[in-house]
Every structure is written in structure tokens, then in C-alpha cells.
Design brief:
Length: 70
């Protein structure tokens, strides 16, 4: 069984659909992890959250990851 995610390419701004296999091998890590995805819009590699579809560097992807000035 496959499931789809939708993410926005940071280079082109295009919405991109990607399919993941729901079957994960034993010891593959948590379901809420970032996986490399080859983007058909720009042909680059993006790291996409396999559960939410958020990109690794997308604002709001990781709470508290925004650097703050003193």
C-alpha cells in the first residue's frame, strides 16, 4: 500500500506529490523521520518528513530550531 504526500519545492515554488510505500523494513527508524526525495520540479534532493510532508528547513518543521539573537 502506498500513501501520498504533498510538499512545495523551495527552488521553484511548485507543489510536488510524492508516494511512499507504507511497508517499512524492520529497524527503519521512527515513522516521523525525514527521508531524501528527488524533486521532479528541480531535480534536486530534498529531505521531506515522511509523515507531515514538511521539508527539513521549512519554518515550523522543527519547533525551537530558529536561531535567536541576544
Amino acid at each position: 500500500m502506498q500513501r501520498q504526500i504533498l510538499f512545495r519545492c523551495p527552488r521553484t515554488g511548485t507543489n510536488v506529490q510524492h508516494r511512499f510505500d507504507d511497508e517499512r523494513p524492520e529497524g527503519a527508524g521512527p515513522a516521523d523521520s525525514y527521508v531524501p526525495v528527488r524533486c521532479p520540479a528541480c531535480m534536486s534532493l530534498h529531505f521531506v518528513n515522511s509523515t507531515t510532508g514538511r521539508l527539513l528547513n521549512e519554518p515550523g518543521a522543527q519547533p525551537g530550531s530558529t536561531p535567536r539573537s541576544a
